[in-house]
Every structure is written in C-alpha cells, then in structure tokens.
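stage 2 :: seqdesign
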C-alpha cells in the first residue's frame, strides 16, 4: 500500500533537508495555564532518517507526549504557544492548519497511543474504525476497505480477522486492542510511526510481543519510528538513536550503541540504574531516582537536574549547561561535570567526601551550602 505524498513545493521548503524524512529544529511548546506558563518542550532538535528508530526516554512529565503531539500538530487549539520548525520531507509543516495537517495524519505520520481503550471508539465496531480511515485517506470503496482491513488485522497477528471486524473494542484483550490500534495506525502506510508508550498499559507478558510486532512492521514497511518510553530498558535494543528528555529539554542524545558505552549525563546514568532487571524475580527497579522532576512553570536557573544529582556543584545552580558534543560528534549532552570524565569523578568524590545529601554541592561555601538546602528544595517541586 503506497502512501500519498503531500504537496511539497511550499514556501519554507529547505532543499538540503530532502535526504532526511523528519527534521525538528528548536521546537518549543508552552501552555498558558492559571498557574503560569508551562514550559513542556524547550528547544528540542533532532533528525530522523527513513526506516530508522529514535527512542525518546524520560520520566513521566518530561515532555515526551507533548513533543510527539507537537511534531504531529496534535495539540489543543487554545492556550498553546509552539515555536521552531518541523521539516517533513523538506517542507516546514509547523504552520499547517488542520485541513493541511489532515493530509499528513495517517498517510504520512501516525500515532499509537499508550492506552488502546482511549484511542479506540468504544461504540464503533473494529471493522468500522479501520475502514473509516482507509476510505477517508485512500478513497477506496467499502468492499476493498473491508478486504484491506482483514489483511491489516492478519498482519498484526489477530486470529480470525473476519470475525473480529464485527467486535467492539471491549470484546478484545488489552494486547489485541493494541494490535488493532497498530493496524489502524498502519492502515494508510505512514512513513513515520510515533509509538507513545505503546506497552505501558499492557500486561508484562504481552509487552515484548507488541514491541516485536512494531519492529517487524517497521522493517517490512521501511517506516521510521519514534518509540517513546519512560524505560530506557524498553528502547535499549530497539532503536538506532536515543534522546533522553528531562524537564522538557533534551539532556543527552546519541546513537544507541554510543550512549550505552559512554553515558555522560548523570540523569541518563540514574535512568540506567533504574532499569528493571530480568534476574530480579519481581522486576523491581534497582534504584529509584530520588527526588521529583523539575518545575515547568518558571523553570529554575541553572541545571534543572541539580536537586537530584550526585555530581552537583555550585556552578550547576547558577548556569544552565548547554547541549554540547561529546568525543563522538553524534553524541551530545548537557552537563558541567559529566560522568566518566575527570571533572565528573572529582565532583562526585568531593560530594561523597563531604557527606552532603544528593542535590547539595560540596563546593558551595558554608553560607551558600546551608542556603543550598532551600535552593535545592526550590528546584524540586510538584508538577504544574
Ligand atoms: N494541555 C496541557 N496544559 C498544560 N500543561 C500540560 C498540557 N499537556 C501536558 N502538560 C504538561 O506538560 C508536561 C509534559 O507532559 P507530557 O508530555 O505528557 O509528559 P510525558 O509524556 O513525558 O509523561 C507535564 O508537566 C504536563 O503536566
Ligand atoms: S553535574 Fe551539574 S550540570 Fe551535570 S547533571 Fe548534575 S547538576 Fe546538572
Ligand atoms: Mg506521555
């Protein structure tokens, strides 16, 4: 099934970007709320080549879903401020209105959401939900749409697909429902699939099956994929590149093999330590990250991971670290005292020798250090 191309000869087209499927440049998304402006996504940039997989990882509230929705233009229409560029096949689609985006949704970019129960319509039969999308985008007749729907359900591993077309979502198990949402997302042959925590709502025994299914479909269709997860373990073996998000910002970004061999950002290190290990019978987290994610309304000065960081020094509370290249230029990170460097080792040793609690810098002069308790707690806040 071939996807229809969107019209590309638009103002804003950038000829050099045609080799890349998707290029996001300095994308920011803010929400105006009664409590102030929420900086949900802050200056995120990445590129995605055809057929490749980008993993987006971070704790709950780090901006993963807002980022995916911002790229796809699926944000609420009110109280949203979005800036930056989203080049899709060379065309900046950031300014596209709903009508133009509707030609992109499904046929060019599609999304699989976390909870299949909320993305499926509970009062419509599965068959209707799949064929509606096919008829809208591909303009096929009813009988062709039904045949295609059966083929799609077969390809996503649903047994007796003809019978399932007449089922309602509640008649299927969670895993089968997620297979249906994947079939719907694939229906019009998108070139990019956003899979936003596609297994989080599922039983642990079917999680791997769904991830395998996504990988298999991606390979067969030569689709690019953005795989979003709070769990670094989920994306570890399934991505070409990983982008770690914290408080709406990218804090580390690298090809997957490079990242796991050379973690630089203490937050990534903390996420790694929190990956559940198979050898632990209960799959319990090895080490929870202490503290809470940062405030997104009026974000604090300095590094927003400081209150939870074992390496923190006074400089971290004053200056926001920029995203800089590591030894491998495809690897970028934000940190003044990176893991695995002499500066990082010194910072950690200094904090440990001083016996200060995590989040307090041993380098601060005594007055600042005692005040640092309040600085640290001012950084650590509840979600907006
Ligand atoms: N419509 C909205 N209005 C205000 N704040 C929002 C809205 N949607 C998301 N947020 C906030 O943006 C932040 C990032 O959310 P989200 O992208 O859903 O995080 P994640 O997917 O990483 O768990 C959160 O603090 C969330 O509360
Ligand atoms: S060492 Fe400093 S800059 Fe690096 S993550 Fe920790 S607090 Fe942030
Ligand atoms: Mg989310």
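stage 2 :: out
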């Amino acid at each position: 099934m071939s996807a229809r191309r969107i019209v590309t000869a638009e103002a804003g087209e950038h000829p050099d970007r045609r080799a890349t499927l998707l290029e996001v440049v300095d994308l920011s998304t803010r929400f105006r709320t009664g409590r102030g402006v929420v900086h949900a996504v802050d200056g995120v940039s990445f590129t995605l080549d055809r057929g490749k997989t980008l993993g987006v990882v971070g704790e709950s509230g780090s901006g993963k879903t807002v980022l995916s929705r911002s790229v796809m233009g699926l944000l609420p229409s009110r109280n949203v401020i979005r800036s930056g560029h989203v080049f899709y096949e060379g065309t900046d689609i950031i300014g596209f209105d709903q009508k133009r985006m509707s030609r992109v949704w499904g046929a060019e970019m599609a999304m699989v959401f976390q909870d299949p129960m909320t993305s499926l319509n509970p009062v419509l039969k599965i068959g209707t939900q799949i064929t509606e999308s096919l008829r809208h985008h591909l303009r096929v007749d009813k009988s062709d749409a039904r045949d295609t729907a059966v083929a799609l359900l077969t390809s996503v591993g649903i047994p007796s697909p003809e019978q399932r077309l007449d089922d309602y979502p509640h008649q299927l198990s969670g895993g089968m429902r997620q297979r249906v949402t994947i079939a719907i997302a694939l229906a019009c042959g998108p070139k990019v699939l956003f899979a936003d925590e596609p297994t989080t709502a599922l039983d642990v025994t079917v999680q791997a099956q769904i991830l395998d299914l996504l990988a298999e479909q991606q390979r067969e269709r030569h689709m690019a994929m953005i795989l979003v997860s709070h769990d670094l373990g989920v994306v570890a073996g399934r991505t070409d590149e990983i982008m770690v998000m914290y408080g709406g910002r990218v804090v580390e970004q690298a090809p997957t093999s490079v990242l796991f061999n050379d973690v630089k950002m203490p937050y990534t290190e903390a996420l790694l330590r929190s990956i559940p290990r198979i050898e632990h019978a209960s799959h319990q987290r090895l080490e929870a990250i202490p503290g809470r994610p940062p405030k997104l309304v009026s974000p604090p000065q300095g590094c927003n991971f400081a209150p939870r960081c074992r390496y923190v020094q006074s400089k971290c509370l004053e200056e926001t670290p920029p995203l800089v290249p590591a030894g491998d230029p495809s690897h970028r990170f934000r940190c003044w005292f990176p893991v695995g460097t002499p500066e990082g080792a010194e910072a950690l040793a200094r904090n440990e020798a001083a016996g200060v609690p995590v989040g307090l810098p041993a380098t601060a002069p005594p007055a600042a250090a005692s005040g640092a308790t309040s600085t640290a707690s001012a950084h650590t806040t509840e979600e907006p």
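stage 3 :: structure notes
- Residues 31, 33, 38, 40, 58, 60-66, 76, 296, 383-384 surround adenosine-5'-diphosphate (ligand 1) (CB under 6 Å).
- DSSP finds 14 helices and twelve strands in the chain.
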